[in-house]
Design brief:
Order of helices and strands of chain A: HHHHHHHH
Shape of chain A: globular
Number of helices of chain B: 6
Largest interface: A-B, 49 and 37 residues
Mean pLDDT of chain A: 82
Number of domains of chain A: 2
Low-confidence stretches of chain A: 79-91
Structural class of chain A: mainly alpha
CATH class of the largest domain in chain A: Mainly Alpha
Distance between the termini of chain A: 58 Å
Order of helices and strands of chain B: HHHHEHEEEEH
Mean pLDDT of chain B: 71
Number of helices of chain A: 8
Strand content of chain B: 15-25%
Distance between the termini of chain B: 58 Å
Oligomer: heterodimer
Number of strands of chain B: 5
CATH topology of the largest domain in chain A: Rna Polymerase Sigma Factor, Chain: A
Strand order of the largest sheet of chain B: 1-5-4-3-2
Structural class of chain B: alpha+beta
Shape of chain B: elongated
Chain lengths: ~160, ~200
């Protein structure tokens, strides 16, 4: 087990902050984000030999974060609140200079938010995003377009 | 949108990243892995019992000289079950540990035979402990090549074929029963070439 632990620990030490930021952008709550990251890293540990051999650790853990976020949103106590898939209003005090973007991101539908985070925060291509989310490239393109239009409208509204 | 990447990056920099010890992530991962292995081992034991019953009776049967009736040499149902278990032991169902490949390798190692029936499936973590012992009398042990595995070995005796394969830090051993008929006592007394040490 030592080889797995050593390599896994080195990867986590390097990547954990970025994974947390991803989860935080997706769900908007630091506690939920930490739950998502823990769930994703637990899955990663179990699959570590395989994903490391395939040289696809980043891709695997990105998908695990997205899936953990989806799973987390499906839990019964989350479903009780109809607006649970949207970022909570008071979840994070966004810094003043980013308040408009935070608010705009918050009102995006979850699917569009995932696309925006993967494409514009991770810098993935359309194809990579499609593979991560298990959707077609066409859907990624249309969701990106819709998300950017919505963000643009929100930000222009804020600035008007 | 102009600058969305930069603005998102700047926003993400303000995320309240917690100080989470890496050791806690390792501990949670180990715990999950242990749980999965225990579940897989328990299920495999069940398969072995079912297979044993299919071969002709229970251990309490008074007449141990009675021949064990083998199920058909190719037992797709049992192979599928074991394959599923191997995958479950490795990951959430999409692992690369391929029990069917291991069974195929075992069958290829005995040319001219139809192939045996899965008798045992064991998982461990220490390759050297599983295959490092001297090959027992009556066995032929040799390294082998198995796609996707880091190491593999095959052992053949008149009664059994074993394939051991290492995937990362995990070791899997499949044992196939080869003889047309064996008494339960013979099965009990059999010395296997590859054994996963009990923790």
């Amino acid at each position: 087990m030592a080889r797995r632990d050593e390599a896994f620990a080195a990867y986590v030490a390097r990547r954990r902050p970025q994974l947390f930021r991803t989860a935080w952008l997706l769900c908007g709550d630091p506690h939920r984000a930490e739950d998502v990251v823990q769930a994703a890293l637990t899955r990663l540990y179990v699959a570590w030999p395989r994903v490391q051999r395939a040289d696809s650790v980043d891709a695997y853990v990105r998908r695990a974060v997205v899936n953990a976020h989806l799973d987390e949103g499906r839990r019964p106590w989350r479903r009780e609140a109809p607006a649970s898939d949207h970022l909570p209003e008071e979840a994070v005090p966004a810094p003043e200079e980013h308040g408009d973007l935070w608010a705009a991101l918050r009102v995006l539908p979850p699917g569009q938010r995932r696309v925006v985070v993967l494409r514009h925060w991770w810098g993935l291509s359309v194809e990579e995003t499609a593979a991560d989310l298990g959707i077609s490239p066409g859907t990624v393109k249309s969701q990106t377009s819709a998300a950017l239009a919505a963000l643009r409208a929100s930000l222009q509204g804020e600035n008007a | 949108m102009t600058g969305i990447d930069e603005r998102l990056a700047a926003l993400a920099e303000h995320a309240p990243v917690p100080h989470a010890p890496v050791s806690a992530d390792v501990r949670r991962g180990r715990q999950r892995l242990r749980t999965r292995r225990l579940a897989a081992t328990g299920a495999v034991a069940t398969v072995a019992v079912v297979a044993g019953l299919a071969w002709g009776g229970t251990a309490s049967e008074p007449d141990d000289r009675r021949a064990v009736d083998r199920p058909p040499a190719s037992d797709p149902v049992l192979a599928d079950v074991v394959d599923g278990l191997a995958r479950a032991a490795d990951d959430d169902g999409d692992g690369t540990v391929d029990a069917s490949e291991m069974i195929a390798l075992a069958q290829k190692s005995r040319p001219g035979r139809r192939g045996g029936t899965v008798f045992r499936f064991d998982t461990g973590t220490q390759w050297a402990a599983v295959v490092g012992r001297p090959c027992p009398a009556g066995w032929t042990c040799a390294p082998a090549t198995l796609p996707g595995s880091d190491d593999a070995a095959v052992a053949v005796s008149s009664d059994f074929t074993q394939v051991a394969a290492e995937y990362g830090d995990d070791v899997y051993v499949i044992t196939l029963l080869e003889r047309e008929s064996l008494t339960l006592e013979q099965v009990r007394r059999s010395v296997l070439a590859y054994r996963v040490p009990r923790p």
